[in-house]
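Please decode residue identities from the backbone states below.
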């Protein structure tokens, strides 16, 4: 097996945890015999992701695995043939797909894959002027939709049909501790995570990532090294430099 390391990808968030993107280089590294590949980046994926059509059940796809520490870390140790969806909403017929052996996680940038969440939309209505991360403020009565949770209290938002971001409405308060918005409707449910992969036998599939996949042959839980760095099951980290 050939091993390599990924250079640091310059990704920041637009609101303290803001995304600005960057390009990582690939450099050869000397790896001890038997050590597995480790991918290293400072952050997961861009906030929110690409606009997508709503599912029939009103859930929506977002190109992100949510949270400060996205989970799980999926270590496919040998090629795996399994069932995948052909669309993110699960409304089209499924197919068999052979998934390449690799480490699958938003911080595993050496793996060619996309990471998606399909979730319901949390709807809030502003009670007071509500600040957004683009420097704008929307007035009371404005509908604020949460399309994804990024981490550290920050959310990907949709306001007046435009994608933006800011502090999550359910945690943002004024100096007196009063909420700036109230929930309008039930809390979202039915969240699912997917890896979008190129099947080695042709075509593309969306692989549902849940606890059940770790019962499949050759699929193991990878390991978190530190923030922004993951490794395969039982692997040793890359040496410094």
């Amino acid at each position: 097996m050939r091993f390599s390391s990924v250079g640091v990808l310059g990704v920041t968030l637009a609101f303290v945890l803001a995304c600005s993107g960057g390009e990582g280089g690939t450099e050869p590294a000397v790896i001890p015999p038997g050590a597995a590949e480790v991918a290293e980046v400072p952050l997961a994926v861009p906030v929110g992701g690409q606009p997508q059509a709503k599912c029939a059940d009103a859930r929506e796809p977002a190109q992100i695995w949510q949270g400060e520490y996205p989970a799980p870390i999926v270590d496919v140790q040998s090629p795996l043939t399994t069932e995948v969806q052909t669309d993110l909403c699960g409304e089209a017929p499924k197919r068999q797909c052979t998934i390449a052996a690799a480490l699958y996680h938003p911080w595993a940038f050496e793996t060619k894959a996309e990471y998606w969440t399909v979730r319901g939309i949390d709807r809030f209505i502003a009670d007071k002027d509500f600040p957004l991360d683009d420097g704008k403020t929307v007035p009371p009565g404005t509908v604020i939709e949460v399309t994804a949770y990024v981490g550290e209290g920050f959310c990907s938002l949709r306001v007046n049909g435009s994608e933006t971001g800011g502090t999550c409405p359910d945690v943002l308060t004024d100096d007196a501790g009063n909420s700036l918005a109230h929930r309008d409707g039930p809390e979202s449910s039915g969240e699912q995570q997917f890896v979008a992969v190129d099947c080695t036998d042709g075509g593309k599939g969306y692989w549902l990532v849940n606890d059940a996949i770790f019962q499949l042959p050759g699929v193991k839980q990878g390991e978190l090294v530190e923030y922004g760095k993951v490794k395969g099951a039982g692997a040793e980290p890359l040496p410094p430099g």
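Observation: Confidence is low (pLDDT under 50) at residues 1-51.
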